[in-house]
Structure formats: structure tokens, C-alpha cells
Protein 1
Amino acid sequence: MTGTWISTRAWLLMLPLLVVMTAVIGWPLIDTVRLSFTDAKLIGTEGGFVGVDNYARMLTGSNFQRALITTTWFAVISVAAEMVLGVLAALLLNQKFRGRTALRALMILPWALPTVVNATLWRLIYNPEYGALNAGLTQIGILDSYRSWLGEPGTALAALIVADCWKNFPLVALIALAALQAVPRDINAASIVDGAGPFNRFRFVILPYLAGPLLVALVLRTIEAFKVFDIIWVMTRGGPANSTRTLSILVYQEAFSFQRAGSGASLALIVTLLVTILAVAYAALLRKAAGAS
Amino acid sequence: MSKSIRNALIGATLVGAGFTGHAQAETTLNALFMAQAAYSEADVRAMTDAFAKANPDIKVNLEFVPYEGLHDKTVLAQGSGGGYDVVLFDVIWPAEYAANNVLLDVTDRITDEINQGVLPGAWTTVEYDGKRYGVPWILDTKYLSYNKEILEKAGIKEPPKTWDELAEQAKAIKDKGLLENPIAWSWSQAEAAICDYTTLVSAYGGKFLDSGKPAFASGGGLDALNYMVTSYTSGLTNPNSKEFLEEDVRKVFQNGEAAFALNWTYMYNLANDPKESKVAGKVGVVPAPGVEGKSEVSAVNGSMGLGITTTSKHPEEAWKYIVHMTSQETQNAYAKLSLPIWASSYEDPDVTKGQEELIAAAKRGLAAMYPRPTTPKYQELSAALQQAIQEALLGQASAEDALKSAAENSGL
């Protein structure tokens, strides 16, 4: 068998998939690009060509800049917290103790819940009149009176980040736990004999095995956090005073609530571009990491 | 043997064909409703069952979404080629729906009998540019509910007639230590906040638009927001109001944690229902107050109508369904959570019995209903105003500055 035949066969085998991908991703993407240069409405008019007007208006508008900052905060803090929590949970669940299997299974639960359910659950926990968080904190004396967690700009985004972390750290933990199984026991044992403390053991023995898989988790989570929509839509709809309005919510508002399909499309493409830049940067990092190990 | 099998097969085929034929004669309508305030989901299902019984050849599929999703769901379905035959729409949407050809013009379908029987003010709910895009179904405005027991304890004899009186009474209740924050509103970043604001705008004699341009940043529009801010910062208003929707207001009021609450018709009978409420039997209702020298009472037009989409393949059946849902008979039978659109119903003892107080408030409130602006760009205007209200409440901007930037961002 020649190389060309293998290559041809590979393409032939991939053909059905490529056709489907082109139909469900490629065509909508091309159509979105076309829309983004028009002033089309969601219903009613097809719209005329307006050049780069939509892009210029979106990029210079204060709404976009504010939403970009909100989104960045949300993504950076929630992903960082999820990575730390995930690794800690994985290290814990890698220890031998009674009930470990049950706990490992339980940990998946938040991640397995649909986001809308998770968001509704947290909205109840944060409820300013009868929420569990208020009740708990006042009963142990940390708070004097009930607070409106989702009604204050200072706490609303933080409250959303906590809810998002609770849902998504299990994914990181799962990936880290799988990676931990690859750490050879003899090296770990040898480092203990050599007198390495827990921190050094983690830093020099365990972390090198975790780095690659964690980078994958980081890429996945960052991209998802950057696109966040449902958890925020259910919990605050972007409020109070738009302090939790992320880019995806802005896209939704522009394209669907205000029905400006044209400028909505341009905004969606800007977000896509930002996510692509992130993905490419991470891919480069991944290659570098792979090369190093 | 084989003959009997063949006969059985033929028989089965015929029976099958019979079923198929029957299924083809049946028309299926898809209707979109909301699960929030006004008629409950159970009420809508019961009304629809009565229709199905009378029209066995028409099947109606019901779908319920929260109010916040009603507009977007309707528009999205329409944008992707349809899906619903009958949709519930808010008084603020006919302009946009008409401009984008979402609803059928049903002006010619409305009979004289319907035309004359329905309260004249109710028709404004479905009208744009002289045409009617449906039939009003929920005739609603925000009333001021009060807890009689708390008012009595505070030594207050009469519920407030002006917004200033409301503030004074709330202060008396707060000062006596009866409640920390006596007033509850729905000021979440949503349309609900605009309804409360509009009520106050109507009380202060304000205007949203003046010859198409925003006019709410001064005069009555500014007075209205200033009232909200003062009430909020002085602690007379429950600070959680800024994340409340109507159902949250109802829960707070039903738990006896509010002396006053601004809410739709439906709250009155639910809050007086011992199964639902801790304050049953203690609930009073009056029209939202006025402002001395400017208004006697105030009210927002929060009515909603039922319309036929332009993509519906069964407009005749859809119209039949709407006529049933909006009929006086149907509305009188379910007049506890939403009051009828029919003028004569308000004198019908079957309707008024047990809710005389609500009917009395409705007669004055409904007559004073003030519209939110009629413009195809309403959604943008509303989003800008929602932001302004919350910024002013949170102290991020003065009421005047917040309203000025809302006027700039309104797209008008």
C-alpha cells in the first residue's frame, strides 16, 4: 500500500463527516459573515450592504467594551478557581480512604446537572428573602441581615462565578484525577525516601504529569467561560444595571431582542475571533509543552 | 385458514385507514402563552379543554414560557418560518409586530357584537396605526395592595390616595418597628420595572415621547424616578425589590413581610387564598395612588392580547380559538386572576361576588391606564430605561443623568 492510497482512503473515510460539518457549521458561518455586513433585521427585511459599519459601531460602543471587561473577569477568575479547586479535589480523591469511590461518583454530580437547573438552584440559594446562603451566614453570625447577592453590582458577578465554579470544577478534577493515575508509584516513593516534602513532591514529581492534561482542561474551560450565557441569563439576565452582561448576552440582545441580525452577527463574529485567538494561543502552548516533555 | 388471515389483514387495514382518515380531518393549532401573572396555566388549560370539547376536530397544543421569553420566542419562531398559530402578545409589541409582519390584521374579523361589548380602552392593547392585530384577553394594570392588619397596628385608617401619603404611611409603619421595609416592588432588570415606573410617570403627568423623541428625562418622567430612588434610599422600599419580579413581590406580600405592594390583578385573590397565603383575609386593594394637583389615581396599561401569526396555516381555526378564549362566557368563568375585557361583566354579580374591592379598584384603575410608548423600537427603549432605573437606584448615577443617557441609548 502506498502513502497516497492511505491518504486518499483517509479523506474518503472522512468525507461524510466533512459534508455534514460543512452543512451544519460551514454554511451558517459563511451566512453569518454575509449578514454581518448588512443591516438585516431578524424578521422583515433582508437588509442592504453597509460595509464595516456594524463592526465599527460595535467595537467603539461602550456596551461592547464593558461587556468585554465583564466577560474577561468572569472567565479569568472562574477558570483560575476551577483549576485550583479541581486539582485539590483530584489530589484528595487520589488518596486511599473509605468511601472514596462513592465520593468520586458524587463529585461528578454538579457537572452532570444541566446548567439551567444549576442556575435555578443557585438563584434559590442566593434568594434575598429565604435563601440558604443568607440564612446560613446570619445564623453563624457572619452577616447581620439578609443581603441581595444578585441585586448588588459588587456581589452579583462574584455570586455567578461561585455558581459556575461549583458546576465546572468537577471536569477539571476528573481530568486531573485521570492524569494522577499515570504518576509512577516508584518515583513518588523514591522522592519520599529522598526526603521531599509534600509541596516539593507535588511541584517536581506530580505536576509534570499533570501539566499536559491540565492545559487541555484550561483550553476547554477558558473557551466555554468566554462564551458563557445560560447561567447568567437564568440568574440575572445581565443585571443589576448591566453589571453582569457578558458578550454572549450582548449578542443575544442585539440579534434577538432588538432583532438587528446584521449587527448581532458582527458582534458574534468578533466574539468568535477572540475565542479563536485564545484557542490558537493555547494550541501553541500545548505544542510547546508536548515538545518539552 | 389463509382466507381468514387475509380477511383479518384487510379488516386491520380498513380500521387503520379509518384512523388515518380521522387524523387527517383534525387540525392542530400551536398556541404560545406565558406562565406568569394573570390566568394560571391551569386556567388556560381548562379554557382550552372546553374549546376542544366543543370543537372535536381542532386540537390545540399549548406551550407556556416565562413572560421574559415570550417576545423573543415569538420573534424567533417567526424568523425561522413559524410554528405557532396563536400567540399571546403584550400591549407594547403590536407596533413592532406590525412593522415586521408577525401578526395578521384581524380588524375585519371582529364582529359588531365583540366590538361594542369590549371596553373601549381595552382595544388600544391590540391596535397600531388604526388596525387591530388581535383581541385583548388580559385586561390588567398594577394595583396597590395593602396589608390591613399592619395598617391598623400603625394606626392608619385609610389606604394612601397619593404617593406622598404612601411614603408617610410606610414611614409610620417603619418607625413603629412593624416592618423594616414596608413597600415591595418589582424592579429587577426586566419589563416589570418599566411597568412600575410607568405607573409613577402617569401619576406625575409625565410623558415618554414628545413627537417621537424621548421626553422622560425631565418633568414627570424625572419625578417618577426620583420618587423610586427616594423610596429606595430611605429604606421605605424593600431593597431586594431591585431583583424582584412579580412573583417575588407576591411571595413577600403573602408572607406578611410587606405592608404595601404594587402588583397585577392576579395577586389579590391569590394573597387572599388561605392555601397560598399567610395574610389571607387581610388583603386590601386600591388603585395605585395619584399626585396632588396632577392625578387622582395612576395606572399602567399592562394588558395583553391574543393574535394569529402570519405564518399560521389555519387562521380560521385560530380565530375560532381566540373568539372562544376571549368570550364573555369564558372570561366570566375565570375572573379571579384576570378581569374580563367585557364592559357588562363588571356589573355581573357572578363576576363581582367575593371580590367587590378589586372590582371597585379596577373601575377606577382601568379607566386611568397609561400606555408605554408605541414604537417599533420599544425593546431598545425599554432596555435603556431598565438600565437607567437600576443605575439610579444603585446610586451609580443621578436620576437625571441616568435618564439622559437612557434617552441617548434608546435608539430613538
Note: Chain A has a mean pLDDT of 90.
Protein 2
Amino acid sequence: MSKRETDEVTGVETTGHEWDGIRELDNPLPRWWLYVFYAGIAVAAVYWVLMPAWPGVSGYTKGMLGQSDRADVVRELQGLKQLRGAQAAKLQKASLEEIEADPELQAYAQAIGQSVFGDNCATCHGTGGVGTKGYANLRDDVWLWGGSLSDIHRTIEVGIRSDHPQTRFSQMPAFGRDQMLTSAQISDLTEYVVMLSRRKADAAAVARAAPTYAEQCAACHGVEGLGDQTKGAPNLTDQEWLYGSSRDDIRGQIWAGKGGVMPSWKTRFDPETLKALAVYIHANAGGQ
Amino acid sequence: MTVVIDRTQPPKPAPAGKGPVSAAARVRAAGGPGGGLYKPRTPIYPKLVHGRWRAIKWAVLIATLVIYYVTPWIRWSRPGNLPDQAVLVDFAGRRFYVFDIQLWPQEVHFITGLLVIAALALFLVTALFGRLWCGYSCPQTVWTDLFIYVERLFEGDRNARMRLDTAPWSLSKAWRKVGKHAVWLGIAFATGGAWIFYFHDAPSLLRDFWSGQGPTTGYVFCALLTFTTYVFAGMMREQVCVYMCPWPRIQGAMLDTHSLQVTYRHDRGEPRGAHKKGADWAGRGDCVDCNQCVTACPMGIDIRDGSQLECINCGLCIDACDEVMIKVGRPAGLIAYDTDAAVEARAAGRPALYRLVRPRTVFYALALGAVSALMIWGLSTRTTLDLHVTRDRNPVFVRLHDGAVRNGYTLKVANRSFQSEQMTIALKGQPAAVLKMPGSSETAKAITVEVPANEVRAVRVFVTLPPQVLSAPNLPATFVVRSSREEARTATTFLSGAANSQ
């Protein structure tokens, strides 16, 4: 644009832009605005001197104030440790029973346990701890290896079918796959187990399976099917089924005898964390 | 409504030798094209007046300043570790203490209500009596008045100040200026310093502040308010009211012709003109054009130009005019708190009518009464006990070996009293329910927990229902928490899992 247009009313030059007859006046910037702009540049220069600002080849300018977010985090974590010091020391010394008896210590242990559970256990047992098919529900009152505080602690410590020398171990035989029983016998046994769980079952099949149950199953699951927590044998009379409650599920389990693995956490957690986790699981479980 | 003074007419030329006296007139005279993009502030030198309104202004100034400086130092005994400061805004502890009332962040609606009441009161007062807030109790007015008082101590009254400002620099001018600014800064610092006491325990903050141990926010806000007080009350003064404050614009909607305002009774004053002692008053107005009203005005306007945006209704021109009227032997009240309607009526020879009851004042009064009643009701029925219930979502329910079902709940029990309370938590609506806290081996119909004074405690509760009562997927239930004096209820549901049996 060669010649600038001047607005008649104000006598101010326009930018030459026009929208539906409305023209923009080319007024100079307010003086104070310019001052704020210069002040902003000055502040930036001061900031470079005081704070970490410029990257270098192997580092960066540290600034005169020595500000460092990394150092802040380290300091805050140390502060947190100090804050927890008294409770942490108490937790270290206390037995499981003592932790449960002290409400304050228990709340502290539960808080730690909850966070550890979310990081390590929730993958299999679920964030709510109710498990899924093949992974035990930790919220109810049915336990394969015992639901007392010390039982839970022990299970976490050594695991189940883990590589720990003292691991909890049980083996449901694969009666079908290993050809220990015939298919017909397994079908009859399935009816027998259905009967044990107080559901309608084929009476003839139950009668045929009774001697087989007594011979093959009662040793672990008990004559009445109540199970045995010392052997990790599940109770067959309740409504809780690790591998499903349908006839197909039960038959499949007699046939193949699945057994999951729970790792030993002894080497991964320090003793306090282990105790805290046991306390958390026990507190949120349905009894025992 | 007729325009009192027609500003479309060019102003009358000032009498020779006198020059325009009001700052506004000086600006008008200096204005015009080529005056630069930015209008400089024209200094205003208000002259000291004596009289009824000036006395009231001094009284309000002292009262408001005393309230401002003394309030944080009032001690108020509260039990336990609670702060013993009567008025305290405790941001760190998230509590707001006002004598026997302590508000939680959840109760911010009480603050909102207070602000609504303040706004409506302002509307009502403005509709009835004009901008009394601006003229007497606005902090900008109070501190500006205080700063002008200091200025007068160092530099003398209007004429002396004007002379001093045009005089060349001298030792006398230097110490007066330095002294004035030093005292201003001192007042400004005391203002910012007092402000921060509202947010921390005043005695310990005073000690920490001077030993360098105070909180950073304390120093920052003290510096900020020192700066704004010094600049607003010392340098900007009426510019804050005219250019920065939205209220002068809004108040136009509150005022009508029946609102009392500082009014020049032009029916009595015009035609104005100088008056020789002993001359006849017939055929002329009472205004002797002495300009005392203009020199007294802290806003730099001429009240004889009529109702103006700049006018803060302070009444100092009334005092200035009354003094002159008495001197020349005419009745006081040529400038007075009056209404435009009354002036019009008198000018037309009718008796002046004052109408306090008008639709707008009735509406403001009713609204004010309604909101005040609501606030009083809210504060008087305010409980110190509060219960909030969140049902566990993961797991939604847990089925136990015997078919019983357990739900987990998190209860937030708020104890807003100043005493630690033993609270009993029970579940109404499900008589078969058994309650248990995680980690506790005891099950019971009710749980007792201790909630410390002025705190919220989160309580986890497991509720177990036996299989025979699990008739529907959703079972209604109500948590009831009882302190020694009060009871709170919150309805919830118990999910039985009946719809999705495993």
C-alpha cells in the first residue's frame, strides 16, 4: 500500500483494513504497555541469572539460587520418611497381632498395604481384591490355605507352588488326562460333587460315584467334602468355586487338575511391607 | 427529567484574573486537539473545611481504621488447639473463624450470602441516600483522606501546597516532600502489615515477621498492599474512582430523581455572581460564586454542574458552602443532600416531596430482608455434624460362604464442633444388618468412633446381610450418625447381587 488513509473523524491513520465499512485505526501502543513489555524482558534476564535456564553440552546453567526440582523431590521424600519414622519403627518391631490391636498402627499398615496391593497383587486378584476364575477372591471368607492373619502372611511369604523351598504346595491329580479314571467315572464324580454343594444331582450317578470319591478324593477333600486348609484342598460344599461352579467346570477340573501359581514375595518385600500387606488383606476380607 | 445544567453550552468564561479553579475545568481548558495521546493527571488540592459532614467523615475514618487495625488482635477463647483469634481466615487449616462461628470450605455459601447482603444493602442505601459508601466508608476514600491529612501536615493547606509545587527546589520543599512520602510509606506498610494478620495468628506472625521467619505469602502480600496503598491513596486518588472502579458506572442504575444526593440547589443559587457586602439580594441567586465548593472537592469537580459520575457524595462542598452562606448572612443549605425531584418542584413553585418508598427501594428492601432471613435461618439451623456416605464400587458386593452378602461403605463424619465427640454409627432400614470396621474382629449393630474437634474422619464400614433378607437387587438403607447433641442421616443402598447370582 502506497498511501495511508486518514480517518476523517479522529484524524488518525488507518491500517487500510476494512470489514463491512468498519476501518481499523492505527493508534500507537499505549506507553504503559510498552513499559510492561520492557519490564518483562528485564525479568527474563534476572531469571536467567537466578534460575536454571540455559542448556549446555554436558549440563546447564545452574542459576544463583540453586533451584533444582530433582533436589526438591529427594528432600520431600526424605521428609516423608522422617514423618513416617515413628510409625515405621513401630511397624518394624510389632508382631502381626500387635499391629491389629493398635488402631493407629493398623491404619498406617492398611494404608501401606493398600498401595502395595495395588502395585503388586491387583494384576491377578483385581484392584478390588475379588479375583476372577483361577485367581482367588480375597474379600470373602473362603480360604484355601487359611484366612487367619498369620496364614495370609505365610501365603504371601512363601507363595503357592512357587520356587520357594517351603512353598505351600498341593496337587489336584489330572484324573482324566493321566487316565487314572475313566470318562464315565469322572462324569459320575461330577454329579457327586454337584450333590455335595447342595444342588440337584443324578441320584444313580451319585450312588455309582460314592466308592470312587471315598477312594480317590476323600483323603484331601474330606469324607463330607469340607476340604482341608492344611493341604490347600478346597471345600466342595460351599458356593465358592475357584475354577467355576458349572458341571463342565467341575468335570474339567477333575479331568485336568489345574493349579495356579502364586509367587513368593519374601525376596521382593521387606518384612514391614509384608506385614502391612497381610494386615490390609486380612482387614478387608470377610472374616477368620 | 430536565437536565439541571446544560453542558452542551460552552462554559462561561471565568472572571478575569481568577482562572478556572476546578481541576476538571482546567483539564477542559487545556484539552482540545493536539493535546497528546494521554491526558496527564491534573493535581487536585482539596482545601480543608470544617462542619458537620467533615466531622462525620473524621469519625467514620477513625472508626473504620480502628476496626481494621484492631480486629485481628481480638482474642477469643476456643477449646483445645484451636486458634484463639476472633477473626481468622486460616487458609492452611481451611477454616474461617468469626467469633463463635467457624466456617468450613463446604459452607462457602454463607460467605456468598454475606456478599449478596452487602451488595443489596449497597443498592438500597444508594437508591435512598446516594453514594454514601463512596463518600464515607470506601477504603479508597478513607485512606485518601488520611493521606491528604498527612500531606496537609507537611505542606499546609490548598494554597500553600499549590505554591510549594510550583516553587523551585529548596531545603524546605525537600524535607516537606520527603517527610510526606516517608509517612505515607509508613502508613502504607502498616496497612499491608495489618492485612496479613487476618490470615495468621497475629502475635506469633508479628514476631516471625520481624525475625524473618514469617511465611513468604505474608511478606508478598504485605509488600503488595504497601505498594497499592501508597500508589492508590498517595498518587492516584480520584483516578481510582473515576477510571478504575466499576461502581460509579453501576450506581447510575440505582439512582433516580428521588435519591438523596449532594445537590446544588440551582433554583435558589442562580443567577450567581459576586456580592458586595450590604448589597441587595433581590433579583439574584444566593450563590456568590466564591468557588469554595470547588476548592474543597477531593474529586476536583464543580458540584454546580449537577450530578456527576465523579461525585462521591462526601458532602465536603456542603460544609464549605454553609460556612460562606452564614458569613454573607444567607440561610445555609445552598448545597445540601437533596433530590433532583425536590429541586425541580421548588423551581416550579410546588412543595418538595420526598419519596423514600418507591418500587425500587421496596424491591431492594424486600430482597435484602429475604436474603438476610435466609442467612439467619441457615446460620441458626446450621448443624455441627455432617455425614457423607460413599458405597464401595470395587467390589460392589462380596458374597460370603454361607450366602450372606457384604457391602463396603466409606463414611465421612464431619465434627464441626469445638469438642471431640464419640459418634455412634448405625444402619436404619435393615434390621438384620451387622456392621464391622475393617481390621476389627467385632461385629455389632452399631459402631462407635471418636471424631476429633473441628475435623472430618473417614470411617470404613462393612455391612453384612444374611441370605434370607436379600430379596431384591437394591435394598434401601440409611446411615445414622449420632453425637452427644445431634444426629445426621444419609440414605444409601445395599446391593445384594440378587440380579447377578454367581
Note: Residues 94 and 102 of chain A are 10 Å apart (CA to CA).
Protein 3
Amino acid sequence: MNMAELNKQVLQITTEDRALIKAVQRGLPICSRPYAEIAKQLDTTEQDVISRLQLLMDKGAIKRYGVVVRHKELGYTANGMVVWDIPDDKVDEIGICIGKYSSVTLSYRRPRRLPEWSYNLFTMIHGSSREEVKQKVEEIVASCGLQDVKHTILFSTRRFKQRGASYSAEQAPAKKAAKLHLIKNTGKQKTPAN
Amino acid sequence: MADPIKNSINDFTPLEQHLLNDYQHDMSLSATPYADMAQRLNVSEEEVLQCLQSLQDRGVISRIGPVFSPNRIGVSTLAAMAVPEQDLECVARIISAFPEVNHNYQREHDYNLWFVVTASSAEHLDIVLHEIEQHAEYPLMSLPMLDDYFIDLGFKLKTHAHK
């Protein structure tokens, strides 16, 4: 996808809405009137917070609204990114087929980068063990008719960073470059401040 | 669904099971969302608040609120790098230090470092990717999402109690 295409999907977000997004992206407060609490931080009213969230929802900025559970803490300790090399004219159909499984939490089409990378469908499959993830992949292969499709499972072995997407304003590039320079030069032991 | 997962969900109390399963999507935008849950589940608001707080403190739920759609309030891409084992730790730290990076995992493959980069516009994203490449000193493969086939209804937990 080129830059113009990527930008086309991006909504025009006002400064006020950016502040609202920032206030809610790490979750609502757990108290009787959570939106009143957020309104206080943003110096506005409870009703204003609710209507602006409703508007973001109506515009398609919010995919899901509710309780976000952690897979790992529920016993789904293995996650495999399964990548598939699907004929271009079949990828929509198969992407939807795989996306319907309850153990699957993502099903995205992405570009190939030939010759290094030929996989065009990315799915995330969760299970309580690697064996279970492999078994689920086999089930999906059988029921979506993928016996002849090249695929591979990339298990994660280490998590260096995980947090919800942050949409806050960008850092000053000069400051960031200086910080990175410091990390590089102070060697491999020093932990950078996040 | 075709493949329900058996797990430890039955270790949770019936109230916890309901809160975990029934409110993963379409939670109402009412001024008193927790009192609404309490009314529907026939318990007090205080019980709901305590229960949710406890689930959050135990790390079972990461948060309550919106999950934003990809590429609507910002743009993002999945990036991959092939980094020799001896440099991996250092390169991973450099990459994680970017505020635009929100997931960064080692995976078993020649491309062994996978991370998500999010920025406010495609131009900004391009600049950040370029900066990452320069600082990491390894080539970066960017794989932006082209289509999303997944309808996110949360993560259904199999319970005996659940209707």
C-alpha cells in the first residue's frame, strides 16, 4: 500500500479527540462514574466525553468496546503467528475462514516482499501449549482446505515490549536521536528508559 | 465456534466468569456502565467494581474500554528484522526505546525480531521506520496491513455456567 492509500483511511482527529483517546487508551477508571472522572482530567463534562466517544465509534475508529482480557493470564501461554502463502484471488475467502476460529485473534492480509518473504496472510493463534497451537493449525488446514498452502508457525520466544498502541503526540526527533545515540554508545548492558 | 478451548475459566467465580465473558464487546456508553452490569447480573455495583478491580490487579484483564481500529486514528505497520543472536538483545532495546513501537517480540525464524510501529500519519511512519533502520543498523521489512478479516468479538471463554 502506498502512503496516500494508507493516509486515506486515517480519520481527521481534533486536538480534543487526541486528548480523549490518550485518556482512554489505557482503560476506563473502575469507579461509579468513569466518564465523569475522565471529564475532570480533560476539563470538560461527562456528557461531552460520552458523546465524543460515541462519535468515534460511529466513525469506525473503535473496533470493540468492553473488557479486554489477557490471553496469557487465562492459561493461553503459547501464541503462534501463523503465516500463509495464499493465491491472491483466494486470500479474502481464506482470511475470513481462518478469522472465524475462536482460538484466532488476528487475520490480516499483508504484502509479500519477494524474494525474501512470500507469505501474504497473517493469523495469530492462541493455545495452552505449542502442541495445542500446532493441533489447531492442523484443524484449520483441514477445514479451510489449505492442504496445499505453504505456511509456517512463528512462535514467540521473548517479549521485549507489549503495550496498547500509543497515539500520543510524537517526541521531538532531535531529543529522541540523542537518547538513542546514548543507548548505542553506553553499550549492551544499559537499559534504556521507556 | 469449531474449536472451544478448555482452560482454567472454571477457577473463576460465576460473577467473574460473567464479567469476563459478557462484556468484551458492545459495552454500553452509559454514564454508569458498572451499575448497569450490576443490575443485569443481579449484584450490587460495589461487587462489580471490586470484582473488576481484582481481575485487573491479577492481570486477567488488561483494561476496560476501547480497542481502536487499525489505521483509523493513526497508521501502523508490522516490521521484521533478521538479527544475529549476539546483537539481538541490543537491537531489541534500541527498537523498544522508540515510543512509536508498541509490541516487540522475538520469534523463531530467520526474521527473528517482530515489532509494530504506530504513527500519526504515513509520512511520520516512514520517517520513524527510517530512523529505526539507521539506529538498529539492520534492514527492516515493513508489512502494513492491507485487509482485516477478523471481526473482533473478544476472546470467548468456555464455561459450564455460560449460557
Note: Residues 168-175, 185-194 of chain A have pLDDT under 50 and may be disordered.
Protein 4
Amino acid sequence: MADPVIAQRRPVLAGAHPSLYGGSAVAHVTPAKAATRLSLRAKPDAVAALSAALGVDLPTRPKRSASSKGRHALWLGPDEWLVIDEAETDLMAALAGVGVLHSATDISHRNTAVLVSGPGAAAAINSACPLDLTDGVFPVGAAARTVLGKIEMVLYRTAAEDYRVECWRSFAPYAFGILVEGAEDAAL
Amino acid sequence: MLLIRCPYCEEDRSELEFRSVGEAHIVRPDNIAEISDEAFAEYFFLRDNPKGLIYERWRHIHGCGRFFNAVRHTVSDKFVMTYKAGEPKPDLPAATPVAQPLAQEGAAK
């Protein structure tokens, strides 16, 4: 009898050439570790209950985010959030018992992330993204859905020189390549 | 590159994040089954094409995803103002900033 074939889930950027890792001296570009993600939509009256269930206060102001123990909630729109859990806990299970009306979709494998860090990180991202990343406009903790070259991404500033670029899985090689090029340009 | 103010994000964002979705404040007739073909065509197909201020719907599709309304000048491409969907049509003087599109473009940068 033939052995059953079981599909192995592989990170999309696992095949990226190691020489590409690192970007440049001023901006390091690395694939992020696997995480669970949730696309969450709800009306304002459900925010409190959902925040309690997730253990992180869903932000209600534009471009804001909230974090707690490796779990991040990013404001995408007036009724829309992206929740990321770096510890890979099951976010759908966390919301299973919530009695308020909301829409939650597990997008852990739809999205993937690229981390850009270093003094030239903002310049590397701005090589393909028109968003203003100066400290006053896009401070640490700011998050926004915007464009990166020809694709859409969610940009999240995790620290003064650290950015997380969330994009769709099938666009990841493009996003990674354009960020590496941007990192090289930022070093010139 | 044009900067467009999204009333939901409360910020000027690049035009790359937006899509235009046609004229705003088109009201669907309540008695649509009873109106004449001409009246239906007027509602369904015919749009203003003014040289000057136009009220349009826009969508911040690569941002917050929301539809909103904008007042734009069709000659200079200048966005006079934007406001949330559902808000009443703002009363603007017909002759608000006209002419010198090039000078306005320079001033916007």
C-alpha cells in the first residue's frame, strides 16, 4: 500500500536566498516568524466585549494599535481590525464564547510578514510606499493599511527603527524583493 | 502626486490609495417602477459633466476601505473638501477657486 502523502506547510519565504537576508547595513529585511491572525469587524457597541475576550483593547482612533503580551490589535478602519498573535494561540477560540455581534475570520495563512529594522528602515519602506513615516505623523505603535509598490500592505511600527510589513502570502516574494532593493538604496 | 484627505482616517493620504466611484448625491427614486423611461434614464445613466466643482464619491480602498464624498475641481483637479458619506451636500459658492491650475498644483507641494 502506498504511503499517504501529507502536505507540509512551509513558510512562503523559506525559499528566499539566504544572501538576500539582511538587506543592507542600515536596514535589515527578514521574514517574520509564523503568527496567527484575525480579520475582525464589529460595530462600536461590540468593541468592549471583544477587547475583553482578546485581552487587548481594540483601538478606536485612526492609525492606532494596542499590544499585550505578543498580541497586537491594529486599527484598519472604523469597524475593522487586524489582530496578530505572535505566540500562535488560537484567536478564533478566544472569540468563540463572545456573545456580541461581530465577524471574525482566521487569516493566519493568508497573510505573511516581513520585518524591516535599522536606521534606514523608514527609507527602505518609503522607496515603494508614499506614507509619511516621520516620528510626528507615524509614531511607534502606529499602523495603517496602505500600498507598497504594486501591492497592498499593512504597515505597523513596532519600535523606533522596527517596522512590520504584513502582506498577502502570494505577494510575499514581491514585497520581500522590493524591500531588499529599498534597503540597498537606503544605504547609498 | 495628489494628496486626498480621508475623513475617516483624518489624514492626507496618497492618491494611490483611493478609487473614484462616480458622482455623489444621486438619489434613487422611491417609485422607480412607475417613473417614465426618460425619468429612469435621467436617474440611471445621465451624469453631470461640469467644468468646475463636482461632488463625487471616492473610496479609500487601500486604506480604511470606507466610501466618502469629495468636492473636486475638474479643471485644476484640486480637492476642495472631503466629508463622510451620508453627510449633507455642503453649500459651496459656485465660483470657489477656479483658474490657474498650474499655480495651485505648485502651491499644493
Note: The mean pLDDT of chain A is 92.
